Structures are given as C-alpha cells and as structure tokens.
C-alpha cells in the first residue's frame, strides 16, 4: 500500500528519479542528487582505493592491534573478511550479518584502505628470518623529532583501516561493520576522525582549507600522472609491495589561541602564502610558482626562508610525496590529521620532516601529538585480499 502511494507520488515511475537497483543482495534506493556512478569508487585494481581517489569529505583512521595468539591464518582471515565487506559496502550492499543494512544503502564514494604496521611482521605471523627479508626497512616508528610531544594513545598500530566517504554516517557504519566482525582477532587501538568541506559547498576541485584558515594541499602530484606513479606507488622494494605505498600519519594539534593573536600579514609570512587564495607571496594566483629569490625594496625576502613553504620545498627529486590530510576538531583540541603517502618513508618523507623539525616558522603554532607508519599493500582483485602478495 505504502509502495503504491509512493509510486503514485513519484508519478511516471521511479526511474525518472534515479532509483538504483543493487541486485538481490542489495537494497534499492532512490536518489535525486547523485547517480550510481558518482557514488561508487571501484576498489579492485593494481592499487588500493583511497589514495589516488579525489579526497572524500569525511575520514576515519582506525588503528588495530593483533590480539596475543593471533597467527598468520587468523590474520589472513581478517583481511579476507575486510576485502569482502569492503566490496559490499563500497557498492551499497550491507556487510555480512549486518543488523542495520539501511545504513549501507549510500556508499557515498566509500573507500576502505588497509595498512600494515610493524607488528604484522612479529613472531606470531612470520619467522624472524622471513620478517627481516619481507619488512620494508622504513616500517618502524619515525625518528624522534625535537618538536614532537607524542601521546601513546595516538601512536602506532599493527593494522590500519582508512575509511573515507562523502557521508559521515556511511563512514561510521563502515567502521562499525569492519571492526565488529573481527574483534576476536584484533582490538581497536585508536580511532581518529577527520573532515574537509562537505560536498556541494565549494566548486569541485577546490583545494581544502585547514582550521588555521590556510589553503592546504596546493603542491601535490596530480592523480594519474607519471609524477604521481613514481612518488606514491612502491616499485617493488620489497617485491611484495609493488603497487603499494606507505602512509605516514601524524596527529598535529594547532595552537589556535596564540595563532589568532597574530595579525594577518604575520600569519601569511609564517607559511609564505596568502590567506585569501593561497597564492605564494610573490604571486597572485594559488598555482603561481613561488619566487624564493624575490626581495622587497629593502632587500628582505618576500617569502621568508624560514616560512613553512620555503622549508618544506623539496631539496632534491626524492623529497616529494602526496599529502591527503583531514581536519580534526574535538574535545581533545583542533588540528590536522596529516597523512602522506610515498613509495619510501626514509627517502622521501623523513628528510622533509627533519628539516621542518629543525626550523619552520609554523612550529610555534603546531604540535605533533601522535605518529604512526604503515605499509599500504598493493591493490587486489574480486577474489583477493589486501596483503595477499605478502601472506600467500
Ligand atoms: C605546504 C600547512 C604540516 C609538508 C603547506 C602549505 C600549507 C601547509 C598551508 C601551503 C600550501 C600547499 O602547498 O599545500 C601545514 C600545516 C601543518 C603542516 C597547518 C600542520 C598542522 C606539514 C608536515 C609536512 C608538511 C608535517 C611534512 C613533514 C609540506 C609540503 C608542502 C607543504 C611538502 C609543499 C611545499 C612546496 O613544495 O611548496 N603546508 N602543513 N606539512 N607542507 Fe605543510
């Protein structure tokens, strides 16, 4: 009866409003806003989704630890469950045994990206000799930097689930589904939730702003470019990681009370870019090339050499990576969930972080309070799972 009334109300058929049939296992849903294609990100392929994917509005980064006694077979079981549930959820189909299937109806460009912390190479999973051969050398905590004030509750993790979508309900439900089914093998260590602007509030392709108000993410390799391939995807060192990557994840608190005491020109000099549109202080548009040699009529550099941009700029071809972070703002404070992806942490990320830790005008107003490094296994097929090249 209700269905009849609804059809009458729709007048002319559901198709006109874009009713999406998702097959026997799925639940049909009507939407007038986005078509099926724009709601679904394909997760199978050479690389895991969620890195080259145009950043979704919301993210949850979930670190998990293997429970004592969890062995290699158990770990493979967890990864297979995640692969299956990720496939279902990202296509709008409820997870296996999902008690709230309605919450899975809108995938909202959901992606699930799995990472391995150093603990995956522990004795429960690998014999020490094999672990030494298979563990990427950079898969360990970052060196201690002078600026760090790390709190253990935000550090480390044996496994990572990076869950991103354009709808926070989708993210929450996916996290619940993915963690609930595997809790006898793994326990949640920390969850960090982040956000960017909601879909539709800004023109597509606008660079995000962080909560200091700065345009953040201008200098980044373009997706699907040779530059992106060489900086982000691991070429096969070690072999099992070919097509994978690494994630450096840092929780960086912003000291907004003192930041807000600075006047606008001082805030712009700190980064070397304008607040209005993110242009370098020597240019007018966001993507203008900065001129680091330009001086004003008193001979003073227009972009201060100690500004964040000047210090962060690569000194050689290796020092480049993808930044795909999210804002956070909760009872614990405000800041940036800094997330960078690179083929090799030691070669690409560490020299830049070391230089910034040594000297960066921004350091007075930012404090790293959490840190973790993960290997991101390569992509997988419909019958596969993340990490199969390592664990099979
Ligand atoms: C650039 C903010 C932490 C590396 C920038 C820019 C801003 C910014 C506003 C200029 C626009 C852009 O190109 O994106 C911040 C804030 C941070 C932070 C607020 C902490 C809360 C970091 C960290 C690293 C880093 C931890 C790496 C260790 C870079 C790099 C660039 C950059 C490589 C591009 C430099 C260039 O080639 O022009 N950041 N950043 N940033 N940042 Fe950060």
UniProtKB/TrEMBL annotation:
Ranges for domain Dyp-type peroxidase N-terminal: 48-196
Record Pfam families: Dyp_perox_C (PF20628), Dyp_perox_N (PF04261)
Names of the cofactor(s): heme b
GO molecular function: peroxidase activity
All residue ranges annotated as the Dyp-type peroxidase C-terminal domain in the record: 208-379
Domain of life: Bacteria
Keywords carried by this UniProt record: Heme, Iron, Metal-binding, Oxidoreductase, Peroxidase, Signal
Annotated PROSITE patterns: DYP_PEROXIDASE (PS51404), TAT (PS51318)
Homology family: Belongs to the DyP-type peroxidase family.
Listed NCBIfam families: Dyp_perox_fam (TIGR01413)
Family annotation (PANTHER family): DEFERROCHELATASE, DEFERROCHELATASE/PEROXIDASE
Protein known as: Dyp-type peroxidase
Species assigned in the record: Rhodococcus zopfii
Lineage of the species this protein comes from: Bacteria, Bacillati, Actinomycetota, Actinomycetes, Mycobacteriales
């Amino acid at each position: 009866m209700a269905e009849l009334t609804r059809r009458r109300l729709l007048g002319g058929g559901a198709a006109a409003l874009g009713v999406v049939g998702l097959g026997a296992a799925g639940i049909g849903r009507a939407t007038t806003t986005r078509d099926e294609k724009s709601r679904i990100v394909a997760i199978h392929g050479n690389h895991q989704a969620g890195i080259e994917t145009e950043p979704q509005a919301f993210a949850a980064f979930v670190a998990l630890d293997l429970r004592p006694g969890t062995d290699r077979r158990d770990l493979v079981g967890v990864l297979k469950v995640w692969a299956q549930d990720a496939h279902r959820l990202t296509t709008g189909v409820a997870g296996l045994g999902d008690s709230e299937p309605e919450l899975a109806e809108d995938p909202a460009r959901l992606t699930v990206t799995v990472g391995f912390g150093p603990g995956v190479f522990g004795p429960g999973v690998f014999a020490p000799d094999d672990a030494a051969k298979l563990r990427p050398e950079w898969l360990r905590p970052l060196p201690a930097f002078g600026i760090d004030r790390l709190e253990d509750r935000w550090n480390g993790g044996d496994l990572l689930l990076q869950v991103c979508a354009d709808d926070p309900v989708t993210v929450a439900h996916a996290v619940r589904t993915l963690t609930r089914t595997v809790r006898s093998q793994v326990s949640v260590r920390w969850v960090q939730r982040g956000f960017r602007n909601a879909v539709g509030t800004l023109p597509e392709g606008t660079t995000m702003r962080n909560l200091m108000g700065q345009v953040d993410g201008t200098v980044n390799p373009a997706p699907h470019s040779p530059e992106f391939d060489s900086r982000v995807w691991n070429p096969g060192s070690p072999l099992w990681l070919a097509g994978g990557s690494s994630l450096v994840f840092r929780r960086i608190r912003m000291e907004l009370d003192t930041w807000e005491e600075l006047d606008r020109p001082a805030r712009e000099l700190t980064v070397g870019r304008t607040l209005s549109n993110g242009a370098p202080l020597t240019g007018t548009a966001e993507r203008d090339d900065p001129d680091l040699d330009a001086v004003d009529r008193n001979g003073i550099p227009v972009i201060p050499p100690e500004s964040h941009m000047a210090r962060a700029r690569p000194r050689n071809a290796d020092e480049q990576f993808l930044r795909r972070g999210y804002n956070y703002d909760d009872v614990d404070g405000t800041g940036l969930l800094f997330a960078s992806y690179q083929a090799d942490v030691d070669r690409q990320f560490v020299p830049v972080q070391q230089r910034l830790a040594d000297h960066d005008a921004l350091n007075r107003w930012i404090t790293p309070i959490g840190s973790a490094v993960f290997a991101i296994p390569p992509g997988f097929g419909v019958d596969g799972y993340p990490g199969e090249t390592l664990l099979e």
